[in-house]
Design brief:
Blueprint (H helix, E strand, L loop, with lengths): L1 H19 L9 E3 L9 E6 L4 E6 L2 E7 L12 E4 L2 E7 L7 E7 L6 E4 L12 E3 L1 H10 L5 E5 L1
Parallel strand pairs: 2-10, 8-9
Antiparallel strand pairs: 1-4, 2-3, 3-4, 5-10, 6-7, 7-8
C-alpha cells in the first residue's frame, strides 16, 4: 500500500505538468478543470512532501490543491484508504469543537479531508486540510468508497 501511494504521488507531479503547465500554487490555491464523469472513478492522491492533493477521474487529472497535513508528532497516516463517511459540517470531538467543513473521513479514528487553514506547511492534528472552495467541490464529486492515496 505504501508503494502504491508513493507511485501515485510521483505520477501526479508529471500529470500536473501535463494538465496545467508549470504552475506554482501558493498556500490556499488550487486548479480545477472539468473532466466528464465517463472518464472513470474518482480518487484522491495526497503528497505530504509537496503539500498537494490531486483529484483524478479515471486516469485523468482533474484538480490539484494545496493542503496542510499533520504537523510533526501528529503525522497524517500514509497508505491507501477510502472515504468511510462524509458530513457537510462536522465538529471535532477531540479538538475544542473545531469546525471541519466538508469532512470526508478515511480512518476509523477521525482523520479526514476537510476545509481548513492552509499556512503553507504541515500544521493540522493529522487531518488533510483543504482550501474551503476546493473542499466543497471535492465533496460534491466524491462518494463513500472513493480511494485516498497518501504518500510521503
Amino acid at each position: 500500500a505504501q508503494r502504491a501511494a508513493s507511485d501515485a504521488h510521483s505520477q501526479a507531479r508529471i500529470d500536473m505538468l501535463d494538465a496545467f503547465g508549470p504552475k506554482e500554487l501558493k498556500p490556499g490555491q488550487y486548479v480545477w478543470r472539468d473532466v466528464p464523469a465517463s472518464a472513470g472513478e474518482e480518487r484522491v492522491v495526497v503528497s505530504l512532501s509537496d503539500q498537494l492533493a490531486f483529484l483524478y477521474r479515471g486516469n485523468t487529472l482533474m484538480a490539484v490543491s494545496t493542503i496542510s497535513s499533520g504537523k510533526p508528532g501528529r503525522d497524517t497516516p500514509t497508505g491507501v484508504f477510502s472515504v468511510n463517511t462524509k458530513t457537510p459540517m462536522h465538529r471535532s470531538r477531540k479538538y475544542d469543537n473545531a469546525p471541519m467543513p466538508f469532512a470526508q473521513f478515511f480512518t476509523d479514528y477521525g482523520v479526514a479531508l476537510h476545509a481548513g487553514y492552509i499556512p503553507g506547511r504541515p500544521a493540522s492534528h493529522g487531518c488533510v486540510r483543504l482550501p474551503s472552495a476546493f473542499a466543497k467541490k471535492l465533496y460534491s464529486v466524491t462518494d463513500v468508497g472513493t480511494q485516498v492515496y497518501i504518500g510521503a
